[in-house]
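Homework-ish question, so no full write-ups if that breaks the rules, but can someone show me the predicted structure for this set?
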Amino acid sequence: MSMKAPASSSYLLLAPLALLVLVVVVFLLPSLDGSQRVGSDGLGGVLCSPRSTGADDYTVAPAAAVAAADPTPTREEPELSLLVGVLTMPKRYERRDIVRLAYALQPEAARARVDVRFVFCRVSDPVDAQLVAMEAIRHGDVVELDCEENMNHGKTYAYLSSVPRLFASTPYDYVMKTDDDTYLRVAALVDELRPKPRDDVYLGYGYAMGGHPMPFMHGMGYVVSWDVASWVSTAEEILARNDTEGPEDLMVGKWLNLAGRGRNRYDLKPRMYDLSWDMDNFRPDTVAVHMLKDNRRWAATFSYFNVTAGIEPSKLHHSP
Ligand SMILES: *[C@@H]1O[C@H](CO)[C@@H](O)[C@H](O)[C@H]1NC(C)=O
Ligand SMILES: *[C@@H]1O[C@H](CO)[C@@H](O)[C@H](O)[C@H]1NC(C)=O
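A: Not a homework solution, just the prediction itself:
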């Protein structure tokens, strides 16, 4: 568990009480980084002091990096902040475990505040409600929106339009939507974002169509700046046109195109891509690789990116 790293990906907490005022229920508990924690009076502070449990540390670096790290770093001000919303479904426990590991066991993004949250619609099944609540306590990374679980019937709208209210007390420069079959390399994305404008941004895998180079960004993962998410939250025209129905990535592009928003567009092809059937098209400069639809493909991905390369020899387990 590394407390030593520079300001980077600290996983913050928002005051749950403030959020309960909203219709949307959000579980956000303190994470490891006490120095940057806001509103630590939530359940998490009582039930699981992060240091005592070691939970929720998304800033773990591979063992080799930990050993080599400078023990007395200075904290630097974040240059940018990014909320990563992984849209998933309550029953996908195993996948969520893997995705949590994927985010936890990657190098931190330097000088950035990055929070990763798993995003659901209402968790209506009582079994899931119990188990997801335990994830919320343990990991503090669950966001439950006021919608019915779906993919192309408004979940993305619910997410983007809720974020500005849910996170009003600690706004982010950028808001990302991604999926639970995408391996996102946060540091690589942050390095892309660092020199970009903080406003009117729409970045991802540009999907060329109808002679336009990037009328929308592929749903594997896209980033909008905070002002764009704020606009979505107030844009009655989206609802009036029933434009929450349909392929979510295409629809986001449609909203922005019609309104002239997200004009600072960046296409991260080929650094964002679908993993091929044969899993032979990984790139060292990957920002995001998508189509990780089974454990075999996740394992290949972790292997390619040397996620366990720094593991200490042990008689207790075998390394790949
Ligand atoms: C919106 O779309 C849904 C699904 O296609 C349809 O059932 C509903 O009637 C539409 N509503 C409006 C206001 O057009
Ligand atoms: C993984 O480690 C190998 C051996 O050190 C290295 O050659 C390769 O570039 C690394 N791969 C990535 C994606 O960093």
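Now go work out the reasoning yourself. Hint: The two ends are 22 Å apart (CA to CA).
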